[in-house]
Every structure is written in C-alpha cells, then in structure tokens.
Amino acid sequence: MDDRIEIRGLELLVYCGVLPEEQARKQPFLFDIDLYLDLSAAGASDDLSHTADYGRIIDVLKSELDDERFQLLERMSARVAELIFENSIVDAVTITARKMRPPVAAHVDTTGVSIHRSR
Q: How far apart are alpha carbons 57 and 118 in whole angstroms?
C-alpha cells in the first residue's frame, strides 16, 4: 500500500538507555512515523473517522511513553508500533527513532533505529 500519513520530527522526552544516568532522567528523542492505511474513504468523505487521527496517536504516545522505561531504541520503537496498532485502523507503520544526545566519545548529531511493522 502506498497511502500513508507522515508524522515528522515528533520530539518526546523518554527514559531510554543502558547507562545508569540514562535511566535517571528523561532524554529527548525525535520520531519520524509513517502510518500506512487506505486513505481512499477519507479522501472521498472528508471525514476524520475514515482515517487515522494522528493527533490522538501523538497524544497516546506522549502519555504512554511518559511512564515507561527502555534500555534499547529497538524496544522503544517496537513499543511505539504496539501503541499505534492498539486503537487505530493503521495496517503498517514505519518508525524512525533518533537519540539526540547519544553518550559516545565522539561528536554525533544523532543515533537511531528504523523499524517497519505490519499487522
């Protein structure tokens, strides 16, 4: 399916990392999310109930990730996919999660992972 809704540059504060200091305080992460679903009904009807409500999805992600802790970006990204599938009509999702301040001994803008999941 080629139809998709794009969410770009979603910044959330999340506990994620293997180092003790990464579990002690939240860090900023950037998410790019592609929601794959058939958009033809929404295109014809102009009705929000015929599509994925990205505002609601963002609210759910912000609320749920606020209380959770992860060691790996891979697990955090998989959790984002799980949350999106829980209450939406999305058929597949691609998530790119980037750590904005990776604790490495070199200058790196970001580190990240990208996953794709289907129902």
A: 17
